[in-house]
Structure formats: C-alpha cells, structure tokens
Amino acid sequence: MSNISKPTTFTSNTTISSSAVNDNFDTIYNEFNGGISSANIADNAVATAKIPDSAVTTAKLADGAVTAAKLATPVAFSASVTGTTGNLAYTGSSVSGTEVFDLGSNYASATFTAPYDGVYSFTARAGIDNHAGRLLVSIKKGGAVQGDGFMYAGSSINDPVVTVTLLLSLSATNTITVDVGSETSGQTITSGNFSGHLVGRTD
Q1: CA atoms of 192 and 103, how far apart (whole Å)
Q2: Of 1, 29, 97, 190, which has the highest C-beta tally within 10 A?
C-alpha cells in the first residue's frame, strides 16, 4: 500500500454522513491492520533496539540476500617462510616471510597483528636443508612462545620438516610471529609457511 490518502475532508456547515466518517477511519484501520508498507515507514525508523531478539530468522532472509559483498572483509593470511635458523636454545630466529595473500591487511614484516579480540587459528611449518638432528618451530605472541613443534631427525634423515598448529585467544593488537631453531645455527630454511585466520570474534 502507498501513503494514506484521506477519502473525505469535512467543511463547516455541511452535513456529515456516517459512511464518510467510517471511510476515513477504515482507511487508517486497514493500513495498520496488516497493510503497512515500506512507503509508510520513515527512514531510520526501525532501529536495532526496536527489533526483538531472534525476530530475524533464517526463514525471513531472501535467497541470496546475504552475499559475500555484504560481509565484512575476512581476516586470513598466508606467507612463505624464508631465512636461516637460529641456535636451538629454544629461541631460534624470527623468520621473514613473502606474503601470498593478506585478507584484511593484518600481516606485515613477518608479523600478524590481531585486528579484533577473538579466537584465531595459526599454522607454522618449516623444513631445513641437509640436517640430521633437531629442529624446533615456535609460534610466539608478543615474543612469548605459545606452542612449538620439535623433531629429532637422527643421522639417517635429512631435510626434516616440523608443523605446528594452534588456536589462540587474542586481544586486538596482539602480535604473532614464528621462530625456527636447529641444532646448528645458520641452517637454511628450504620450505615453509606461516598462515592464520580469525575463527570468531569475542569483542
């Protein structure tokens, strides 16, 4: 229905019929009793506070109404790990990374900076060249180890690879980096990746 039009306008010193009065009232009744359309709702009239909890259900969403273009930019990144390892004194060396993709622009200088409070998933993988011995890969938050992976390759295994995956609860601006350490300082990282994504916001 469009905007309401008044059927009858009364003037002084004229006879008023009951049907004309009823027409005016019925126009309003019919509009309010299930006939209100978008034309009769003012811009910004439906505020968030006016929508009851659980009022908007999946059944009320038109097919294709929620599209990728209408969603916030996702938070996800991937970088190839490069550089050399540090000594295995459980510190290693902060490795550099060549960005593969960075949705949300939160990865730079081999460091991921959390844009929101939330739960994040990270994976770090590194392999080194011709090394028969121990290899350590650590994921750090603000320089403190949050989790690591360790491998002792032994004398018969070259090119060991270690992968670490963690779920971390972060606050906005927390930083995440990767360290790689080996038994002999200066080993070349021949393959590796550092990636992560936001699982869900908690703010």
Answers
A1: 20
A2: 97
pLDDT surpassing 60 at residue 90: no
The pLDDT tens digits for 125-146 are: 988 876 656 788 999 999 999 9
74 — pLDDT class (breaks 50, 70, 90): very high
Helix, strand or coil, per DSSP, at residue 90: coil
Q: Is residue 89 within 8 Å of residue 151, measured between CB atoms?
A: no
What whole-number distance in Å separates Cα of residue 201 and Cα of residue 116?
7
Range of the domain at 39: 18-60
Contact 70, 193 (CB under 8 A): no
Question: Span 40-53, mean pLDDT?
Answer: 82
Which ranges constitute the DSSP H helices of the chain? 18-32
Burial class of 47 by CB neighbour count within 10 A (0 to 12, 13 to 18, 19+): exposed
Residue 120, pLDDT above cutoff 70? yes
Q: For the chain, what is the total number of helices (H) and then of strands (E)?
A: 1, 12
Q: Any idea what the CATH number is for the domain that residue 173 is in?
A: 2.60.120.40
